[in-house]
Amino acid sequence: MSNCDETLEELQRFLDKELPDGMLQSIQTHLGSCTDCLQAFEFHAELRTVIARKVLAEEMPEGLMDKIRSCFGDELTEDMP
Ligand SMILES: [Zn+2]
């Protein structure tokens, strides 16, 4: 398998690492020789990183603060942002 349509179709599963080794390899080979698919792959990989960072940045501090509050009580954390 080394055509663009199939590669793009499997891109999400490739990023999820859900593909069997054989297909993983043929996609990697295709990405090595096809700039179009490589760009699409990098775009989606980057997108996932950005989303993961955004989720971490927005949800971690809130959840963390709740945890701190439940451990130490509101008085200890009322001066905290
Ligand atoms: Zn291609």
How helical, in percent, are the residues? Answer: over 70%
- Tell me the number of strands: 0
Domains counted in the coordinates: how many? 1
Largest sheet: none
Oligomeric status: single chain
What does it look like?
This protein has 81 residues and is mainly alpha-helical. The protein has one domain. The protein is built from 5 helices and no strands. The termini are far apart. The site of zinc ion has 6 residues, from α1 and α4.
SSE arrangement:
Layout: H1 4-9, H2 11-15, H3 21-33, H4 35-72, H5 74-77
Helix pairs in contact: 3-4
The structure holds zinc ion.
Zinc ion (ZN) is lined by residues 4, 7, 30, 34, 36-37.
List descriptors.
single chain, 81 residues, mainly alpha, 5 helices, 81% helix, binds zinc ion
